[in-house]
Design a protein that fits this description.
27 strands; alpha+beta; 27 helices; single chain
Length: about 900
Amino acid sequence: MIPCTKTGCHRWFRNKSGLTQHVNVYHPVLPSVNISVPVEQCQESSAGEEHSQVLPDGYGDSGNPLDDPSNSNPLAEYVGPGDRYYRNYHPNLTGRPCDSLGNFLPAGHPAEPLTDMQPDDWSPYSSRLEFELADFLFTRSQMLAANINELLNLWNASLLSTGGQPIFRDSGEMYKTIDSTPLGDVQWEKFSTSYTGERPTENVPPWMNDTYDIWFRSPKEVIRNMLSRPDFSDAINYRPFREYESATDSRQWEDFMSGDWAWKQADTISRDPATHGSTFVPIILGSDKTTVSVATGQNDYYPLYLSIGNIRNKVRCAHRNGVILIAFLAIPHMDKEHASTDAFRRFRRQLFHSSLAYILHDLMPGMTEPIVMQFGDGHYRCVIFGLGPYIADYEEQVLLACIVRGWCVKCLAMRQALDTDALYRSREHAEALIEEFDLKNLRDEYGIIGDIIPFTSGFPHADIYELIAPDILHQIIKGTFKDHLVEWVESYLKAMHGTAKANAILDDIDRRIVAVAPFTGLRCFPEGRHFKQWTGNDSKALMKVYLPAIEGHVLVEIVRTFRALLEFTYLVRRNVITEETLVTIEDAINCFHKHREIFRESGTVQTFSLPRQHAMKHYPDLIRLFGAPNGLCTSITESKHIDAVKDPYWRTNRNKPLGQMLIINQRLDKLAASRRDFSRQGMLEGSCLTATMQLFSTRDGRAHSNTSEAPGLNRCNEDTDEAVDCPTSIEVHVELARTPQTKRARTVTELAAELNLQHLPTILEEFLLQQLDAYNNCDSDLPKWPTYGNKITVYIHSCHSWQNGAPRYDWLKGMYGLDIVRILAFFSFVSQSKRYPCAVVRWFDRVGDKPDTDTGMWIRRPSIGIIHVDTLYRAAHLIPLYATRPVSRNLKPHHSYDSFTAFYINKFIDHHAFSLLSDSY
């Protein structure tokens, strides 16, 4: 037995790992001083000036993810139009407004202003023009300093003849103005650490002597800035809630605060009456190494991002700074001789956890006692922090959970049989095992690395096993689909047919993929699947077209395996997931597990104990915990890499780039904060030009009521946010283009000849009869055929030659019955003084009364007609039914619809099509 050596502690332990766990949880050694270094000095600091300090080895309450939180007298409210849904809000953590001292205010009390700036106060800028120029040069065009100087020199030279004053003399003055912005200002700080353990007497590895710098920003101040943003005021959930459909009382999950985890945490926190009325703010973290340059040397960075669970998933998915860079973690590099040693691996893991614990330590007081912060709606509220989910890929997850690679980070399933039913991991269980077993047994029997303490151990109510978030991108899209199933198909074909024939089949599959017709948002594969660097977007694009491409070349069970996985993927990526959707998700998982057995039976694979594939099993429980998974996917952090790491890196001079990247990120935050503040006060209405013209008109005493945009100019504050990996809703509206085509047919006769449809006039007359409702008038005789002018106007988006190339004929779903048509021509004509916007279409009739059994997609065959544009609903994508027919090497995408007679409606082309075609038929 080993005693604890701390004074006053009388605990004894069976092994050293149990003692280590106890000491780090109950007797942590905290760093004595946090050395704060202004970011401007980060490049001048020499090795002799850097301060070194020892980080703690680790920093501990848990819960079972399947526990049902208590539901005592929740507050209920209807939400949305028509009272179709209602929410039960948590009864204690209610997000009640208070004053700046934390005293709760009566209902209806007015909010305090977010700033005392005047509507014409552009400080620290002298005018709107000065701010817009700085924002354009630094944020939107990302112009280098040398180019900014050249541009300003030319601009200032043009002002000399008129006696005008330059806006900025040079880039330095512009940077100084940006740096003086108080909004969004959270300074970068640095602390350093080094190895302090036992060293060998000789041949000391270099990593033991190195000092490691970690740059970070106060997470509490970053959260304060996020909560105070006025553009988030309508996108924040102040209280945990459960949402139900009014008609059926069926529950649904969407944003993070709709999940059981937030409710359960609120139950735990509200055991202290002092927290009642507060706002629970879950902290969502994410980290992942990224490489910015390989050609000029391996430049790796390890960014740490922070978000809060209160903002809605759509905001977190979009480019709206709902995810903020708060740190660059250290990456210890080592030669191959020492990189695989146990001592180095242990140090690298503990460095990661200790760094996270130190960066987050200023949140600790706010996890037990409320802190007053102002929100974007102007109200102050008492805030309680809590560590929430961690966004990470599998490699990062095993590091976070201190789990051996190859084991599941969520459950106790054995490494060799991951798909067997097993209990969830928990913090209490892991601590009990660490006290009971030695390190070898922990590793071999439970997959636990017992000598590393997770960073969550020192924080209240935090269980790292529970907090691992689902990862659609790496677990499902890049993992199960691309790295597993697509590779298995190739191995299967080689096992069944031999290498030579398998390669011929794979070439035909590639030609089928190449021949797929283009569609908005669909990435093309001009050379098939064979390229070296696969990105997440490549895998998503392949998912949309791969299923019909392999049909006929592989067994039906393989096709059904892919179908089950695709349907699972599109279901878990929905914005709103209902109880019915959860049942469908579980059915898809069961179908996937059933049909994938063909790969084992054929000898293609020997085991399905693959952590990323096994993770599918946990998605229903994780959805109940955290809401829709698309708000916690690594695609969010990977997208953030571009704005926070990669683009700033390429703006540096490559000499000690990290310091320059920190400054760039800080200036971007300041400019974004200024834009939000100016927009909130209505100071960015219209374009800069029209605002300046209005100002001069006012000074000259002329009328200035006309504030329309100048010709050719767009609004400067146009919202160009684009969702990342997030399904969107679509409003139905179709109208003809504003500009007609001048080189197309001008009469019905000419259009009939152009389309080779000699009976087009007859079809047009039948269309007019339908529009006039002649056939539905049972009390009168059939009227004469209606008359119309022979003159027509043909519009773009459906033409026989697109940009001097192949023809372009759009596909659309009709509103009534969701029929599929191919647009041959958009045109309009006049009959009895009424204009009819319409389209010549080729109808595609259904084959059968249900989708194809194997692919789950509908099959269609064509006929001709004319329809009104008001009956068009949305664009559709069709993929030929290839069957066993080989595809010619000369077949191009624009030939696809003319070379085949039957097609699948591609319900996997986007999320809206999947929902529409899954629910409508």
